[in-house]
Amino acid sequence: MNHFEYIDDELHCEDVAVKDIAGQVGTPFYLYSKATLGRHFQVFDGSFSVPHITCFATKSCSNIAILNLFASLGGGADIVSGGELFRALKAGMDPKKIVYSGVGKGRDELKYGLESGILMFNVESEQELDALQEVAAGLGVKAPVSFRVNPDVDPKTHAYISTGLAKNKFGVPIAEALEVYKRAMAMANIEVVGVSCHIGSQLIDVSPFVESLAKVKNFIQRLQGAGCAITYLDLGGGLGITYDDEEPPAPLDYARALEEELGDLGCTLILEPGRVIVGNAGILVTKVLYTKQGGKKFTIVDAGMNDLARPSLYDAYHAILPVEERGQGRELGDVVGPICETGDFLARDKQVPVSKQDDLLAVMSAGAYGFTMSSNYNTRPRVAEVLVDGTKFHVIRQRETLEMMIAGEMIPEK
Ligand SMILES: *Cc1c(COP(=O)(O)O)cnc(C)c1O
Which fold has domain 4-32+279-405? Predict the structure, then answer.
């Protein structure tokens, strides 16, 4: 459920006409609905009845206004860099609800996490464990650690977003993990607190989640047998959404399936949803610059692959809707951006709205991995982000200026 709807043939976000925002902010821009964000967070979080913390996957949509909203609803953050830690803290997240994932955390980042007092580090290798021990010893503190185990489960999603297979770079193989835990338990500045896993993204079936939980649960029981008490079980994120005709499980079905498999293990669950919370809570609004008929029909818009990478990167589908519905109909063709790459498209060989110059188009389901994956490629300023709240809208990130883009560059003196 989301709050992007036509009222009198004009696309609205909650009570605000998208066209009116475009008139004031210019295009392109990302547009989020606060009501949708809040509802998705609460439905997800409220689906679990066991003790848990919902740590929003910051990388999916990291604007501090949005992180602040989730913090106010009791949420925490799953972070994957020192930069995301900085954001989460600026947004008012409780450090005791921040978990730090990622295969390549630098020593400076480990130090920053320790100094901030985060809940735990999801460690992904023995060398990272050694580095963390050293950094924690230097600070005279104990580092709370959970290992990310790799359960070798096929999530049946796009190869680029599968992470829990033995051939993926993530985690410690579950078969070797017991030895690693034993080593960690003997370290002076490490406190083992959890086990974590994250098998992939955009999963549209619960069975890989359940299969992975079964393996991790079995592992936790072995750990307990070896005298290692586990406080937190982090099940990662990955629940999919409807972009086109996918039928992912509802959060409640996902939660029930997990809780049933979990039984009475006695751990606090950590969940790291990203896409399922924000994906359908945001859109990208773009303007038609030109149309032309080449070998096929091209609609050239002012947003490109630097603004929304998913179609180019994963051949991902995003529905494209007209902001003003005038009965213009649909036609087969491409919606492309201004970037000098053939791979620069938002829709390819799809039924897209028949458009004319200056029409506004809405690229739907763009809230997750949209703005956060954007870049300055072709020296294009990153776009504005706007949050609608009922009848009002707020610019939550200003459009970059040309000066901002080159602010850190310098020509060496001769
Ligand atoms: C990306 C990621 C997530 C979020 O995945 P979604 O599919 O957006 O829910 C959660 N945990 C980790 C460790 C991740 O890398």
Answer: Lyase, Ornithine Decarboxylase; Chain A, domain 1 (2.40.37)
pLDDT 10s digits, 67-121: 999 999 999 999 999 999 999 999 999 999 999 999 999 999 999 999 999 999 9
Read off the pLDDT band of 279 (50, 70, 90): very high
Would you list the domain boundaries of the chain? 4-32+279-405, 34-276
The residues annotated as belonging to the active site are 340
What single letter denotes the amino acid at residue 54? T
Pick the closest to residue 301 from 315, 322, 282, 280 (CA basis).
Answer: 322
Let me know how many helices (H) and strands (E) the chain has, helices first.
12, 21
pLDDT tens digits along 350-372: 999 999 999 999 999 999 999 99
Distance between Cα 225 and ligand 1 center (Å): 30
CB 168 within 8 A of CB 157: no
Ligand 1 geometric centre to CA of 101 (Å): 9
Kindly tell me if the per-residue pLDDT of 29 is higher than 80.
Answer: yes
Instruction: Give, in order, the Cα–Cα distances in Å from 250 to each of 152, 243, 244, 276.
Output: 25, 14, 16, 10
